Amino acid sequence: MRARGRSPLLKGLWKLSLFESSRLASLQRDNKRLYRAYLLKEAMLGVLDCTHEGLARRKLDEWVRWAQRSKLAPFIRVARTIRDHADCILAYVKSGLSNGRPKALSNATKT
User: Fold this and answer.
1) 35 to 16, 41, 101: CA distances (angstroms)
2) Does residue 33 form part of some domain?
3) Does a structural domain hold residue 86?
4) How far apart are CA 10 and CA 30, in angstroms?
5) How far apart are the first and last CA of the chain?
6) Class of residue 78 by CB neighbours under 10 A (exposed 0-12, middle 13-18, buried 19+)
7) What residue numbers bound the domain in which 76 lies?
8) pLDDT higher for 16 or 71?
9) What is residue 111's predicted lDDT score, i.e. its pLDDT?
10) pLDDT digits over 65-92, tens only?
11) Is residue 65 part of a domain?
12) Which of 55, 56, 57, 75 has the smallest number of CB atoms closer than 10 Å to its CB?
């Protein structure tokens, strides 16, 4: 997919224009692996948007199983990492807090 065609891949399904939706539909036909990767990305965002820990755990387990069956090597590796760190991911879901800002601040002071 050319650079200008990436924009539908960077947006969520619900934020696509009509033109972008049609490009995504053609991607579904023409590049099934890339389309599967897009769906996996969107599904992971759905996990992180959960507010109930039990639902998030179930969705995360389903996502890991799907990613492991996806035949996409990068997603298979990520699925293993996510499985190993599932408790930390679920702690984020439960609390809504991330350590991203403190880490960024720490990295900024090192340079």
Assistant:
1) 15, 10, 32
2) no
3) yes
4) 18
5) 37
6) middle
7) 48-110
8) 71
9) 60
10) 999 999 999 999 999 999 999 998 999 8
11) yes
12) 55
Q: What is the pTM of this model?
A: 0.75
DSSP annotation of 50 = -
Crossing angle for the helix pair 53-69 and 73-84, to the nearest 10 degrees: 150
Token representation of residue 45: 């965002």
- Cα–Cα dist 71/98, whole Å: 30
In-domain check, residue 5:
no
- What distances in angstroms separate CA 82 from CA 7, 22, 57, 73, 89, one per listed residue? 26, 32, 12, 14, 8
Is residue 30 classed exposed, middle or buried when 0-12, 13-18 and 19+ CB atoms within 10 A define those classes? exposed
For the chain, the residue count is: 111
Per-residue tokens: 33: 């692996």
If you search the block for the tokens 């599967």, which residue do you land on? 36
